[in-house]
Write a structure and sequence with these properties.
Length: 211
């Protein structure tokens, strides 16, 4: 059990690589006020940017970083930069458009770094000016291919983390890309799919796969 302020600090530290804020700091109060305001402003009903992910259907083939690269150039580079570097605000205080890989991007091991999780989020939210929760822009396969391209560590680097441990590997998300796993599937397949075989095997063994 955590307080909301502690949960905010979890995200500051991981995926965002920052130092935790004092719980009574001005910045923390601002975060908590904003979250409270979002709930009030939407009456707890309407959909808003950045909220709950959408489900995606898994194709029978692995997600394809090469197709993702083309989709990225056509739909994403204008805000996130040709090399994923993002765009700073004019006053350099922070990013107007966040970097998607490189030294200031989210960490490996974070939810955004998982391909299914990121695809679900992309479907509901990106491109920022075109997608809404009610009316996604990307198809499921496109969202998965884009997430595969962005999160392909063979071509993109990120800040490093020391600890990839999962307290209980039976609860490890199936698209987490670091072993050990409770099954025999490779890290490559866990990362890029196809996921349906993994899900089927877990269910056959009476385990509950999560992603
Ligand atoms: C019109 C500008 C714009 C376009 C085009 C756009 N984005 Fe974004 N993107 C944003 C903004 C703004 C944010 C930050 C949203 C926020 O923090 O609420 C963001 C956030 C993200 C994040 C989260 C980064 C993080 O650190 O959590 C990802 C991933 C992402 N975009 C991927 C994409 C992909 C993939 C595309 C193309 C399909 C795309 N974006 C197109 C503006 C854009």
């Amino acid at each position: 059990m955590l307080t909301l302020a502690e949960r905010v600090n979890n995200c500051v530290m991981h995926p965002h690589n920052g130092r935790p804020l004092p719980l009574d700091s001005r910045e923390m109060v601002a975060f908590l006020s904003y979250l409270k305001w979002i709930n009030g402003a939407t009456g707890g009903r309407a959909h808003f940017k950045g909220e709950k992910n959408l489900e995606v259907q898994f194709p029978s083939v692995a997600a394809d970083p090469q197709r993702g690269r083309q989709l990225y150039a056509a739909n994403c580079a204008r805000c996130h930069g040709a090399d994923g570097e993002g765009i700073m605000r004019g006053d350099k205080s922070t990013y107007a458009y966040p970097p998607l890989w490189g030294p200031n991007s989210y960490q490996p091991g974070s939810s955004m770094h998982r391909i299914i999780k990121e695809a679900q989020w992309l479907k509901a939210n990106m491109p920022y000016d075109k997608a809404t929760w009610e009316k996604p822009f990307l198809t499921d396969a496109e969202a998965l291919d884009l997430a595969a391209f962005i999160n392909d560590d063979r071509q993109h680097s990120r800040p490093t983390v020391k600890n990839f441990d999962y307290p209980n590997i039976g609860e490890k998300s199936i698209d987490y890309d670091r072993g050990p796993f409770v099954d025999h599937f490779s890290e490559q397949q866990h990362k890029f799919g196809p996921y349906n075989d993994i899900i089927a095997e877990w269910r056959k063994k009476g385990m509950r796969p999560v992603w």
